[in-house]
């Protein structure tokens, strides 16, 4: 019998994939969440980290949003 790995398939652009890969690389080995990097724009990650990834992306976008000076 084959053990099924539960995960989440992520499809994104290259910069966002690199952001997620760098997030994963910054964690200790026991907390790494990427199961497989499929190619430059597709990742397979542990399903329990979806919220953490979304939060980190939201924070990144908020920090890097241009606001026109008043």
Automatic annotation (TrEMBL):
<dbReference type="GO" id="GO:0000439">
    <property type="term" value="C:transcription factor TFIIH core complex"/>
</dbReference>
<protein>
    <recommendedName>
        <fullName>General transcription and DNA repair factor IIH subunit TFB5</fullName>
    </recommendedName>
</protein>
<dbReference type="Pfam" id="PF06331">
    <property type="entry name" value="Tfb5"/>
</dbReference>
<comment type="subunit">
    <text>Component of the 7-subunit TFIIH core complex.</text>
</comment>
<keyword id="KW-0539">Nucleus</keyword>
<dbReference type="GO" id="GO:0005675">
    <property type="term" value="C:transcription factor TFIIH holo complex"/>
</dbReference>
<keyword id="KW-0234">DNA repair</keyword>
<keyword id="KW-0227">DNA damage</keyword>
<dbReference type="InterPro" id="IPR035935">
    <property type="entry name" value="TFB5-like_sf"/>
</dbReference>
<dbReference type="GO" id="GO:0006367">
    <property type="term" value="P:transcription initiation at RNA polymerase II promoter"/>
</dbReference>
<keyword id="KW-0804">Transcription</keyword>
<comment type="similarity">
    <text>Belongs to the TFB5 family.</text>
</comment>
<dbReference type="InterPro" id="IPR009400">
    <property type="entry name" value="TFIIH_TTDA/Tfb5"/>
</dbReference>
<comment type="function">
    <text>In NER, TFIIH acts by opening DNA around the lesion to allow the excision of the damaged oligonucleotide and its replacement by a new DNA fragment. In transcription, TFIIH has an essential role in transcription initiation. When the pre-initiation complex (PIC) has been established, TFIIH is required for promoter opening and promoter escape.</text>
</comment>
<keyword id="KW-0805">Transcription regulation</keyword>
<dbReference type="GO" id="GO:0006294">
    <property type="term" value="P:nucleotide-excision repair, preincision complex assembly"/>
</dbReference>
